[in-house]
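Session log. Operator J.P. requested a structure for one protein chain; no other inputs attached. Running the standard single-chain path with token output.
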Amino acid sequence: MIPEIEKASSQEIKTFQEEKLKSLLTYLNKKSPYYKRLFLDHNIDLNTINTLEDLTQIPVTTKDQLQLHNDEFLCVNKREIVDYVTTSGTLGDPVTFALTDKDLDRLAYNEAISFACAGVTNDDVLQLMTTIDRRFMAGLAYFLGARQLGAGIIRVGAGIPELQWDSILKFKPTYLIVVPSFLLKLIAFAKKNDIDINASGIKGAICIGEPIREQDFSLNPLAKKIKASWDINLYSTYASTEMNTAFTECEHKVGGHHHPELIIAEILDDNNLPVKQGEDGELTITTLGVEGMPLLRFKTGDMVKAHIEACDCGRNTMRLGPVVGRKKQMIKYKGTTLYPPAMNNILNDFDDVSTYVIEISHNTIGTDEILIKIATKEPSEVLLRRIKDHFRAKLRVSPKIEFCDKTEIQKIQFPKMSRKPVMVVDKRPSK
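Structure written below.
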């Protein structure tokens, strides 16, 4: 199930996207109060926007603007809205998105071709280990995508290893949709209860919310831990509410595939200009085919690297590498630039660390400080020294680390109304 446009040449894909872009600009100029005003205020002649390169003539849209002018992004009458979702609010207040019936169809199509990318067919059954309620777009997208693909889906929800294994053993799903670190809890439960995980019938896990690969696409420490016990295929998928689109790995596992019929992707530097090929920058997206709240040059806040070589799966689309980090979570620590995912990889190397949370703050002279709170069954100076030495070896610096009670850390990770664990707490003043 590879859409024809994804097998087309790079030039054909570019020409296709430029036609879609012209239609979008006309739609926004007619229907979007926010973008209509933007075009007027900046004297933008839409007739001069004919190529993807011409997009640089248009100012970017930021999350702050989306929060401040949320309703002005709506392009349809409210009676046409059939579903409301909100962003998770990881780096600020949640933003509301309104979807029409056509938007739900587009969401289903997106997830169906994304599942197909990871090898899912209508013979498979997926177990959904994330919420479908709480105004969460992802859970709904997974359900709609499975239906469109013709695959079965078991809506178990998040957490509770015992319930997850009850469903696995009872209904025999072949794929899991799961936050990868939760797989370690499933493995631990299985070992404790004499469940043969490699006889469970699970072929693969579609991993959401956390990276499972290094920048060279090798498995990171978290994924290695999983694979050491459970012989299943791990597929990374990356998406956000604002994008209404997913970038999912195929069987070759060399980045999440771009769907050019659904989204235009730019990788921009601090001046909002395209980075050189091979450099990382901020993913900036333009949604195609969205009816309710389309976005133009929206800066996602995620730092990524694009890969443009043709893939052996037959798709010629651009692929996104693992997220390097969130731009707002970039840390300047003792002369070194860090992102939380790099610290996650180091902490996941230690079986003794059962859970942790990273706190970022400013000290009295205004520079960044890092405090990592760790829970372990047997705290010791030896373990602390091993962790700090590993940080120095990998990142050249060692943050402050303290042992904490597991319950205390879990209270930080799961605040009231949270839909996913909070692993980074940024206490620095907003810029």
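Operator note: The chain has a mean pLDDT of 93.
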